[in-house]
Structure formats: structure tokens, C-alpha cells
Specification:
Elements (H helix, E strand, L loop, with lengths): L8 E2 L1 H16 L10 E5 L5 E5 L1 E6 L9 E7 L13 E9 L7 E6 L5 E2 L15 H18 L4 E7 L3 H5 L4 H4 L1 E2 L10 E2 L4 H17 L7 E5 L2 H11 L6 E3 L4 H10 L4 E7 H4 L17 H11 L4 H8 L4 H6 L3 H23 L4 E8 L3 E5 L3 H13 L2
Parallel strand pairs: 7-9, 12-13, 12-14, 14-15
Antiparallel strand pairs: 1-11, 2-3, 4-5, 5-6, 6-9, 8-10, 15-16
Helix pairs in contact: 1-2, 5-7, 9-10, 9-12
Length: 390
């Protein structure tokens, strides 16, 4: 299996990071507007990118030498990924504020075209701008670094905006999720990986093949996770390193098929409830453009667990899985997840057949491990022993 390499892009979070760095450099006179064409930023995993800076605007106060407000933009490039935000301009406006005497303070908020969180359970609290945690860290880190460099101990306001964000957001899942009025600033790695299905499947297949070939034990064991959250969880919960995990993206079913083709003996699927709960409905491609029945499946599980119709309807109206779980007591969570895991196990085994042992573990960033199928720990322990050389 082979495919042509696809071009990667960068996230709205990376655009905002670069625009903020450029605006800060200009705000304090470290760079000049007629010379600043691009900036270099470091992404969460250490990768560095140079991004072009557009549409610089500088405002001065008559009595001050340095600018009072600077705005810069970066044009988003999604690479070969079919992304609705490709080509948008992400702006960052930074301004120096009168110090309140509290020392250095950096505030970050969203302006025009940036959504607001209206329902609990998302990455940010209700009322906050929809700028997710890791992009917030990327953006404020740039501002902090420049303030530190020049010894500035005052206050800085950063406002992000996307001029077309409000209209574009209507074509996304944001309104359904509880983000109103604009787009979200997203990204956990800073990079947009191309979503060509065949290219990703080719990569998954090759990764599985290499991992199976490199195993020392007689058993062919694979550990699989859709994305970065799952990789972090497997490291924390089971001590399984990232390079031992197959990253399957949204392609759960096709990845299971490929594992069977490679005659894998056992496969453990680990992932966040917001994605893997879909498997409880037999949904084997978890991308939101194919299916988004998370709340319906949780409500169905609640009914099977004996919840009242009123309680089940309450879960059905939630924005996220974590939001739904927050409406449940610990005992209710356990009974609900028991039902969810039963259905997940049923559909995984239906797809895998009798030739391969397949198990799953689901977690939440808020609640930790939520559920496991019957032999999940057994597979994880066997993989850990193999990697540990025991």
C-alpha cells in the first residue's frame, strides 16, 4: 500500500500564536513594521514554523514613543486538508494598558468572529471565548516571553478575531455544541494533518505492520488510539509509550480490518468518551461529518441502565459527553458506562470476528477512566511487559 505525500497545514491556534508574537514585537519596538514579514514560532511538541504576517495596523498615543495598540493577521493554511477555515485571516490585537499595580498581567479574549461558550462541558467555561486550552498557552507564552525580554511589568490585553468567523461558524458543529457567534481557536499540536482517507489508512497499515514485526513475544499485540488525548492517557494509565501506539484517527473500523489482515492476536482501543462513545452505536468512522450521535447513545445507555425518561432526556440535551456525565452521580456514571461498554464490546467483536481478541478502555479528561471491556487491562499489561522486556 502506498500513497502520495500530502501537505500539512497549521491550526487556527498557530495562526493566533504567530499573529500575537508579531504584534508584541511591534508593540515594544523590537521589530519595525516595514521589516517584519514573518515570525518563527515553536509548537507544543517542539516543531518550529515560519508564518507570514499580514495586515499590520499600528496605533500611537501622541505623548508616547512606542505604539499603544498593534494588530496583525496570519492567513490560515490547512494544507491538503478539506477544512472550512482554510484561507481565513486570524487577527491578534495587543494593547498596553495602564498598570493596576498587580505586576505583569496578560489577558486573552475573543472579539469579532470568535465564538462564546454557552453550555457547560466544553474546553472553556461558560461565558469564555472559545479559545481552547493549548492555543491559550501558545498565545500567552509568546506575550510572556517578550515581556520578560524587555522587562515589562505592566498589563497587556490580547484580543483575537476572525472577520468571517460568525458566518463560517454556522456551517460547523459549533452552534450544536454550545459555541455561539463564531469559530473556535483550536489545535493540540499546532499542525493540521491532511485528512485524505487513503493516505491516512496507508500510514496506519504501515505503522501496524512495523509494530507487529518488531514484537519479541509470540503474540501480536496492538494498542490503538484515535489521537493525542489517547496517547497521553495510555502513557499515564498504563505506562505505554507513544511510539508503541497506533494512531488510527477516526478510522476505527478500517483499522480493525487491517489489524485482522495482519493476523493480529489482540488489539486494545483506548480513547476519549467524546469520540469512542459513537462505537456503542456501531459507528466505525467517528469523524463528526459522518456521525454525531454521542448524546443519543448516552441517552439510550441511560434508559438501558434504568434512568428515568426525564433524566435520559436531560442527557440528550447536553452539548458534550463530559457535560452529560456531570449531570450524573458517581453511581449513575458507573451504571451508564457499564451499558455503554457492553455495546462497544458487542460492536467491536462483531467487526473483529473470532480470530482476534479486541477490547476497549474509555476515559475523560475530567473523570479519568470511565469504563473498560472485560479483558482490556490484560492486553495493556501484556503490551507493557513486552515493551519493558519482562
Amino acid at each position: 500500500m502506498c500513497s502520495q505525500s500530502l501537505r500539512r497545514g497549521y491550526t487556527t491556534g498557530t495562526c493566533a500564536q504567530a499573529a500575537t508574537k508579531a504584534a508584541m514585537l511591534l508593540l515594544f519596538g523590537i521589530s519595525k513594521a516595514d521589516e517584519l514579514t514573518d515570525v518563527r514560532v515553536e509548537l507544543p511538541k517542539g516543531e518550529r514554523l515560519n508564518l507570514e504576517i499580514r495586515d499590520i495596523k499600528i496605533e500611537y498615543k501622541e505623548t508616547e514613543k512606542f505604539p499603544h495598540t498593534v494588530s496583525c493577521a496570519v492567513k490560515k493554511d490547512s494544507g491538503d486538508d478539506p477544512d472550512i477555515t482554510d484561507g481565513i485571516f486570524v487577527y491578534s490585537k495587543v494593547r498596553r494598558m495602564v498598570s493596576s499595580g498587580e505586576g505583569r498581567v496578560i489577558r486573552l479574549d475573543g472579539g469579532r468572529g470568535i465564538g462564546r461558550v454557552t453550555r457547560p462541558g466544553l474546553d472553556q467555561p461558560v461565558g469564555a471565548a472559545a479559545i481552547n486550552r493549548i492555543p491559550r498557552q501558545m498565545i500567552t507564552r509568546e506575550a510572556e516571553a517578550i515581556c520578560e525580554e524587555i522587562g515589562y511589568e505592566g498589563e497587556i490585553d490580547i484580543e483575537l478575531s476572525v472577520p468571517d468567523g460568525e458566518e463560517l461558524a454556522k456551517k460547523t458543529f459549533n452552534p450544536r455544541l454550545g459555541v455561539e457567534g463564531g469559530l473556535s481557536i483550536l489545535g493540540t499540536s499546532g499542525i493540521v494533518e491532511p485528512m485524505s482517507e487513503q493516505a491516512i489508512l496507508d500510514t496506519i497499515y504501515l505503522d501496524m505492520k512495523v509494530k507487529i514485526k518488531g514484537q519479541k513475544s509470540g503474540k501480536k499485540i496492538l494498542i490503538m488510539a484515535p489521537g493525542n488525548y489517547g496517547l497521553e492517557f495510555l502513557k499515564e494509565a498504563y505506562g505505554i509509550e507513544e511510539d508503541e501506539v497506533v494512531k488510527c484517527s477516526n478510522f476505527i473500523g478500517q483499522s480493525i480490518d487491517m489489524a485482522k489482515e495482519l493476523q493480529c492476536d489482540a488489539l486494545l482501543l483506548a480513547g476519549h468518551i467524546g469520540k469512542l462513545v459513537k462505537v456503542a452505536g456501531g459507528i466505525m468512522n467517528t469523524h463528526s461529518r459522518w456521525a454525531d450521535s454521542r448524546m443519543e447513545l448516552l441517552a439510550a445507555g441511560a434508559l438501558r441502565a434504568g434512568f428515568s425518561a426525564e433524566k435520559s432526556r436531560e442527557l440528550l440535551e447536553c452539548a458534550t459527553a463530559d457535560d452529560a456525565l456531570s449531570r450524573c452521580t458517581k453511581e449513575e456514571q458507573e451504571s451508564l458506562m457499564y451499558q455503554v461498554m457492553e455495546k462497544i464490546q458487542e460492536y467491536l467483536r462483531m467487526r473483529a470476528g473470532e480470530e482476534m481478541l479486541i477490547e476497549a478502555v474509555i476515559f475523560s479528561k475530567v473523570y479519568g477512566i470511565l469504563g473498560k471491556t472485560s479483558r482490556a487491562d490484560e492486553i495493556a499489561a501484556a503490551k507493557f511487559r513486552e515493551c519493558d522486556g519482562n
